[in-house]
Automatic annotation (TrEMBL), chain B:
GO terms for molecular function: tryptophan synthase activity. Pathway: Amino-acid biosynthesis; L-tryptophan biosynthesis; L-tryptophan from chorismate: step 5/5. Tetramer of two alpha and two beta chains. It catalyses: (1S,2R)-1-C-(indol-3-yl)glycerol 3-phosphate + L-serine = D-glyceraldehyde 3-phosphate + L-tryptophan + H2O. GO terms for cellular component: cytosol. It comes from the Bacteria. InterPro entries: Aldolase_TIM, RibuloseP-bd_barrel, Trp_synthase_alpha_AS, Trp_synthase_suA. Keywords: Amino-acid biosynthesis, Aromatic amino acid biosynthesis, Lyase, Tryptophan biosynthesis. It comes from Flagellimonas eckloniae. The lineage of its organism: Bacteria, Pseudomonadati, Bacteroidota, Flavobacteriia, Flavobacteriales. This is Tryptophan synthase alpha chain. It is an enzyme of class 4 (lyase). It holds the Pfam family Trp_syntA. The active site is at 45 (proton acceptor), 56 (proton acceptor). Belongs to the TrpA family.
């Protein structure tokens, strides 16, 4: 059994392209070309060069000695927080901006929640000299002012999503509506492994550089390519898709996906899609989705804006349903404590999203000889205000 | 014969009206339908509101949000429509997004539609290939016509494919856009109308998106079988309530 996408765009029963006909030509153009373009030597060369010189890859695989000692196991951190712009998001936007150029597009749109993907998109648009419009929920604009300012400095136009709950899901709706209205000249850079096929697969491929590097780096440090466990947080699931990618089809490797429980799974304020979701269609993809019995999509909650999404990428829905991955949900409080612990033990302030992944160390006992790789997807600078408010710093 | 096919045989340009069920008030549904028929409307699309209507512009989005807030849900809509065939004989089409139908159960949904006397379904985000593989047989079993959309960007090959898969009419989206009124149709849209007409499709076409008044209705139906008005009618309801539907319809033709 493979956990990668099949030729029809599905992961098991999840995925596909549930889009109105208005979007069919756009996604079809992408579907027919994305693999061919990604495999062109000139594309690969430019992508690799930019990842190296501009993003700063390979990112280190760091043996966290004090953290390992505390939890009596061997913990490595994949330092995606050291990427340019502060998170793994830029791996995907570099790939997609090159894709957009190959497809002859001269206008970019994107959605963003906390603003990390928006900043990563605005960054590559500045790099390529291409017009950029980022949709962001009106509420998120108010609470993520520094990222809004960064996008503006980078030359992007930030358009408020005023519909629905005025957060990430609505920003995504607005971006899709923009694409319907601009089907010829515009490329939509989706920020996660969500959306209609081929987006989940394309984004996963761009992010797969994470596990590709882990293999090489682990071989150097431990003499083996494969860890015993690989751990990542999942909102839509792009950093997790990248960290899991080359390990999906190796059954001996434990895959741990960490979701945001918010204030607790049963509180009504949670984003733990695997626990609370049912199969449904969101943003063009059949996946697990938080919704009412009547099929209306509900508003998730997490202290971490990047995990605050009512669905999960179809790859992850399949990993959950098939039992290939273990899904653990972590509350706001547990994540905040884990973020503080990592700061004090290793001198690394993680993004609150990534803090969720570290919090499982309190839940799950590993063997002393286990090699556990935790994907440190982003740095905590953007969350400083949250940390300040939470810990009264 | 399905009421839609019968209606399409009539020698006239068809006026179809879309409205969101549960808007402006929760229990307006049956009254609006009855009134529209009385005013000579040929066909009605009953919108099943959805939290994330990504093909719709602001007007229909807002009406959906309001309808959900009013308490509209799928089962309630079916209850409201339970006796509709005692008073209404024009074709009725359910229009909405796929997820609420999926949650209700596609077969259960189709069965209820048949019991009530619904004639067709439009689910813009249910793609052709998935429909054919998983749901076509169910739609057929319950005598429901599925209506597909085409746009100015749809390739000729795909239009032929959609034409072959259709057994009622083709919903011809007037321009690359979400729903909502536009100033009018330009040369590009005229060329698109001409191009589709010259394809001699087996299914008649009904134009939707951007039709808001008598002028755009005439323009849209010159080379097609009819036109659908949605956002403009909802705006009318917002401004005038359900009392003055007669005036709206008379203003169109």
């Amino acid at each position: 059994m493979s956990y990668h996408v099949n030729e029809k765009g599905y992961y098991g029963e999840f995925g596909g392209a549930f889009i109105p006909e208005m979007l069919y030509p756009n996604t079809e153009e992408l579907r027919q070309n994305y693999i061919r373009i990604m495999e062109e030597p000139s594309f690969k060369e430019e992508f690799d060069q930019l990842l190296k010189d501009y993003v700063g890859r390979p990112t280190p695989l760091y043996f966290a000695e004090r953290l390992s000692k505390q939890y009596q196991t061997k913990i490595y951190l994949k330092r995606e927080d050291l990427c340019h712009t502060g998170a793994h998001k830029v791996n995907n936007t570099i790939g997609q901006i090159l894709m957009a150029k190959k497809l002859g597009k001269n206008r970019i749109i994107a959605e963003t929640g906390a603003g990390q993907h928006g900043v990563a998109t605005a960054t590559v648009c500045a790099l390529a000299g291409i017009e950029c419009v980022v949709y962001m929920g009106e509420i998120d604009i108010a609470r993520q002012a520094p990222n809004v300012a960064r996008m503006k400095m980078l030359g992007a136009e930030v358009r408020p999503a005023l519909s629905g709950s005025r957060t990430l899901k609505d920003a995504t709706n607005e971006a899709i509506r923009d694409w319907i209205n601009n089907p010829v000249d515009t490329h939509y850079i989706i920020g996660s492994v969500v959306g209609p096929h081929p987006y989940p697969d394309m984004v996963a491929r761009f992010q797969s550089v994470i596990s590709e590097e882990i293999k090489t780096q682990l071989l150097e440090k431990e003499g083996v390519e494969n860890p015993d466990y690989v751990v990542a947080c999942v909102g839509g699931g792009s950093n997790a898709a990248g960290a899991f990618y080359h390990y999906l089809d190796i059954p001996d490797i434990g895959i741990i996906a960490v979701e945001a429980a918010g204030k607790g799974i049963d509180t009504g304020e949670s984003a733990a899609t695997s626990a609370l979701g049912k199969i449904g269609v969101i943003h063009g993809s059949k996946t697990l989705l938080m919704q009412t019995n009547d099929g209306q999509i509900t508003e998730p909650y997490s202290i971490s804006a990047g995990l605050d999404y009512p669905g999960v990428g179809p790859m992850h829905a399949h990993l959950f349903q098939s039992g290939r991955a273990e899904f653990i949900s972590i509350t706001d409080d547990e994540a905040m404590m884990a973020g503080l612990a990592l700061s004090k033990l290793e001198g690394i302030i993680p993004a609150i999203e990534s803090s969720h992944a570290f919090a499982i160390l309190e839940h799950k006992k590993f063997n002393p000889s286990d090699i556990v790789v935790i994907n440190l997807s982003g740095r905590g600078d953007k969350d400083l205000q949250n940390y300040i408010d939470y810990f009264k710093l | 014969m399905n009421r839609i096919n019968q209606k399409l045989k009539e020698d006239k340009k068809l006026l179809s009206i879309y409205f969101t069920a549960g808007y402006p008030n929760l229990n307006d549904t049956a009254g609006i339908i009855q009134d529209l028929e009385k005013q000579g409307v040929d066909m009605i699309e009953i919108g099943l509101p959805f939290s994330d209507p990504l093909a719709d512009g602001p007007t229909i989005q807002e009406s959906s949000t309001a309808a959900l807030k009013n308490g509209m849900h799928t089962e309630l809509l079916f209850e409201q429509l339970g006796d509709i065939r005692k008073t209404v004989s024009i074709p009725l089409i359910m229009m909405g997004y796929f997820n609420p139908v999926l949650q209700y159960g596609v077969e259960a949904f189709c069965k209820r539609c048949q019991e009530i006397g619904i004639d067709g379904i439009i689910l813009p985000d249910l793609p052709l290939d998935v429909f054919q593989k998983d749901y076509e047989a169910i739609f057929r079993k319950y005598g429901l016509i599925n209506v597909f959309l085409i746009t100015p960007q749809t390739s000729e090959a795909r239009i032929r494919e959609i034409d072959a898969a259709s057994d009622g009419f083709i919903y011809m989206v007037s321009s690359a856009s979400t729903t909502g009124a536009k100033a009018g149709f330009g040369e590009e849209t005229e060329a698109y109308f001409d191009r589709i007409k010259s394809m001699n499709l087996q299914n008649p076409q009904i134009v939707g998106f951007g039709i808001s008044n008598s002028d755009t209705f005439k323009q849209a139906t010159q080379k097609t079988k009819g036109a659908i008005i949605g956002s403009a009618f909802i705006k009318h309801l917002t401004q005038n309530g359900v009392e003055k539907i007669e005036g709206f319809v008379r203003g169109i033709r």
